[in-house]
Write a structure and sequence with these properties.
alpha/beta; Rossmann fold; Alpha-Beta Plaits; 2 domains; six-stranded mixed beta sheet; four-stranded antiparallel beta sheet; 13 strands; 29% helix; 27% strand; globular; binds ribulose-5-phosphate
């Protein structure tokens, strides 16, 4: 899709994603994120690989991104089959001044974190609405359904004010690619994201959470609806 056909928000995503193509090098192993911004990037990447005649290996962070990348002719390998990932490109739900993130509204925070924390570099692409002075609001927490009660009480002890189970049609819990469920836990303003990231993961039954503070992004590209980008 051409930028002129996009909504203002999607124009920002498109601009950021387009600027990320400058980081793609021949022979690279590239992590692919998940979500609407990552979808735009995967589409642009497929065109870029063809037009530049370069060869890259991709590792995707969800079944959705795997399917999209493969459908566009990109070479997608299993995470366990690659030795290292040079760069990972993904979107985010919130980015603070220290490039710490909240991610996972697309339901893929666990695989995203595994791939991104082990990548040489993490490049985040986002429209301007994702900027935040302080991380706040809902943090996705992926957990084992069996442990729901323990997880809820653990999150409450850590200060969660509101919790909402991620659902699909008819209020049924939405299942992640890993067969787990997700609760969005709202902690208000998060004073110490690193401490909270670790504390949530210490609750029995929690698989992973969407705070990315232990390893902030290396580069963030924000895109505006007027097509301008800002790199941080
Ligand atoms: C998925 C994610 C996404 O990167 C995040 O939710 C941003 O999504 P979008 O690009 O659709 O705004 O973390 O788990």
């Amino acid at each position: 899709m051409e930028p002129s056909q996009l909504t203002p928000k999607d124009r920002g995503k498109w601009a950021a994603s387009n600027a990320a193509l400058a980081y793609i090098k021949d022979g690279m192993t590239l992590g692919l994120g998940t979500g609407s911004t990552a979808d735009i990037f995967i589409q642009q990447l497929a065109g870029h690989v063809q037009s530049e005649g370069i060869s890259i290996t991709c590792v995707a962070t969800s079944n959705r991104s795997t399917q999209l990348a493969k459908s566009l002719g990109l070479n997608v390998a299993d995470f366990s089959a690659v030795e290292k990932i040079d760069l990972c490109v993904d979107g985010a739900d919130l980015v603070d001044a220290k490039k710490r993130l909240i991610k996972g509204y697309g339901g893929a925070c666990t695989r995203e974190k595994i791939v991104e924390y082990s990548s040489g570099k993490l490049l985040i692409i986002a429209d301007d609405s994702k900027r935040a002075a302080v991380l706040s609001g809902a943090v996705p927490v992926e957990f084992l359904p069996f442990a729901g009660r323990v997880v809820e009480s653990g999150l409450r002890k850590l200060g969660a004010k509101k919790m909402e189970l991620r659902t699909i049609a008819e209020g049924r819990p939405s299942m992640t690619d890993n067969g787990f469920w997700i609760v969005n836990a709202d902690f208000g303003k998060i004073a110490n994201p690193l401490k909270l990231e670790e504390a949530i993961n210490n609750i029995d039954g929690v698989l992973e959470n969407g705070l990315f503070a232990r390893r902030p992004a290396d580069i963030v590209i924000f895109g505006s609806s007027n097509g301008k980008v800002q790199k941080k």
